[in-house]
Amino acid sequence: MSEVHLIEHPLIQHKLTLMRNKDTSTAKFRSLLSEISLLMGYEVTRDMPVEMREIETPLATMQAPILEGKKVTLVSILRAGQGFLEGLLTLIPSARVGHVGLYRDPATLDAIEYYFKLPEQMEDRDCIVVDPMLATGHSATAAVSSIKETHPRSIKFLCLLAAPPGLDYFHEHHPDVPVYTAAVDPELSEKGYIIPGLGDAGDRMYGTK
Ligand code: URA
């Protein structure tokens, strides 16, 4: 299966270029990420299932579409995933939010989990896992493996930038989880950074080093 959806909307590509630029300020970087997450959220939710419900307008009774199932769950991979939440929550204000905390072992680049908290009744929920950078794919893969243990109805993975080795690694482990990204950059550095990329997304969002 292994789907990769490249979201090439010109507004997203324009904003991504501004984010890649090393001279873009922390404040601007954060607001661009928020704007992009809203635009990408529109694409990632395009096929959400709806059911018909009877409602009354001021003039008549009608069957009208409404999202089916329990509330959507957004799962942010800490810390850079937080940057995707604002735009997505503007679009889906009733979404539940889970968090997965992972850090990269600098020697092995393996993902080590230090925090995991999801809403209850995941069996009825569609889950969108967010992290701006799909680099080695280790964090994304580990996060989705843990999330799968809660048996959500569906899982999608949303990022801003991906690299081919990360996509391969992720889909080797999770061929059933589609990835939505704004770009696939050609390579990874030895330290696991996406090249040309945009640097460390967490540092650029929060002004840390
Ligand atoms: N994480 C980042 O923030 N940037 C990269 O390039 C790779 C992983």
What's the helix and strand layout?
Blueprint lengths: L3 E3 L3 H11 L5 H19 L5 E7 L4 E7 L5 E6 L3 H10 L4 E9 L6 E7 L8 E5 L2 E2 L3 H11 L5 E5 L2 E2 L1 H10 L5 E3 L1 E2 L2 E2 L5 E2 L5 H6 L3
Parallel strand pairs: 1-11, 4-5, 4-7, 7-9, 8-10, 9-11, 10-12
Antiparallel strand pairs: 2-3, 5-6, 13-14
Helix pairs in contact: 1-2, 2-3, 4-5
Bound molecules: uracil.
Word description of this protein:
The chain has helices at residues 10-20, 26-44, 82-91, 138-148, 164-173, 201-206; strands spanning 4-6, 50-56, 61-67, 73-78, 96-104, 111-117, 126-130, 133-134, 154-158, 161-162, 179-181, 183-184, 187-188, 194-195. It is of the alpha/beta class and 209 residues long. It has one domain (4-206): Rossmann fold. The strands form 4 sheets. A 7-stranded mixed β-sheet has the order 1-11-9-7-4-5-6, sandwiched between helices. It has a 3-stranded parallel β-sheet with strand order 8-10-12. A hairpin with a 5-residue loop joins β13 (187-188) and β14. α1 (10-20) packs antiparallel against α2 (26-44). The chain is globular and about 60 Å long. The protein starts with a strand and ends with a helix. 35% of the residues are buried. The mean pLDDT is 94. It binds uracil. Residues 80, 133, 135, 192-194, 197, 200-202 line the site of uracil.
